[in-house]
Amino acid sequence: MSSLTPEDTQAITRWRTINDRMLRERYPYHYLACGIDELIAAGTNLKSVEEAANSTGKPYILDWIPARVGDVCFWWVKFYGINNNEPWNSRFAHFGER
To answer: What is the top-level taxon of the source organism (predicted)?
Structure first.
């Protein structure tokens, strides 16, 4: 999946909103993605994603989390980092099949 349709974006936004608390409880880390558009533009190559994250000063990727919305399978990119001794906001970035 190289790009998102408006329907994909809406479904993923709903999924992320509903599951954000569950994900934070299940994974006791702080997550952050650089802009989702930047990640999508980087393509599905892990090296490219890491470069996109690093270029914005964001923390490195720890893991990929598989997820599904209806028939749409995708990955959340998991980041970790600290900003001025404060946890980064919890965020996941959608990314296509790896």
So the answer is: Bacteria
pLDDT band at 87 (very low <50, low <70, confident <90, very high): very low
Mean pLDDT of 46-52: 52
User: pTM score, two decimals?
Assistant: 0.26
Burial class (CB in 10 A: 0-12, 13-18, 19+), 29: middle
Q: Please, what sign has the CA dihedral across residues 7, 53, 28, 84?
A: negative
For residue 53, the SS3 value is helix
- Domain ranges across the chain: 6-95
Residues in the chain, how many?
98
* Structure tokens, 95: 């990314």
Can you tell me which residue has the tokens 């946890």? Answer: 87
